Amino acid sequence: MKILIADDDPCSLVFAQGILTKAGHSTRAVTNPEEAFQIIQEAQYSEAPYNMAIADHYLQHMTGIELLGKIRSISPDFPVIMTCGYDHSCAGRREQDALGEKCIHLMKPFGSEELLASIEMARSGIGMYR
Fold first, then answer.
1. For the residues of 30-83, what is the DSSP string, one character each?
2. In what order do the strands lie in the sheet with 2-6?
3. Which of 30, 60, 89, 111 has the most CB atoms in a 10 Å sphere around its CB?
4. Is the peptide bond before 109 cis (omega within 30 degrees of 0)?
């Protein structure tokens, strides 16, 4: 799968990218949510579109929820995994519910098994929060 990772923490990007690359996925990691959206948008109609995105809830200049909304504005069923390092911030689920958004939630810190299981769930549509 081709997966875009958006997180403003370089350590989180390296960690997730390492796991996914080792598992055979093609990845691109970015720290800027606007860049993440632009990459997904530009690749959408290419020969090699992205299959999924992983985004941190807290990003600079835009929240993960806002990025999710932008992605879904161009691709309503695009799989997204939302990561979160703060339990209370994942209360953003109410925000997502109000937007009619759905995604997989993955609490930080997570291990390789949790990340890969979340990828499979998102890919198959299982466990998508609505």
1. ES-HHHHHHHHHHHTTSSS---EEEEESS-SSS-HHHHHHHHHHH-TT--EEEE
2. 26-30, 2-6, 52-56, 80-84, 104-107
3. 30
4. yes
- Against a cut of 0.85, is the pTM above it? yes
Please tell me the distance from the alpha carbon of residue 61 to that of residue 1, in angstroms, as a whole number: 28
The whole-number pLDDT of residue 129 equals: 45
- What confidence score (pLDDT) does residue 84 get? 87
Q: Which pLDDT does position 103 carry in this prediction? A: 81
> How many Å apart are CA 111 and CA 70, to the nearest integer?
28
Count the alpha carbons within 13 Å of 86 in the hemisphere toward its beta carbon: 8
Which residue would you say has higher pLDDT here, 93 or 52?
Answer: 52
The Cα–Cα gap between 93 and 129 comes to: 8
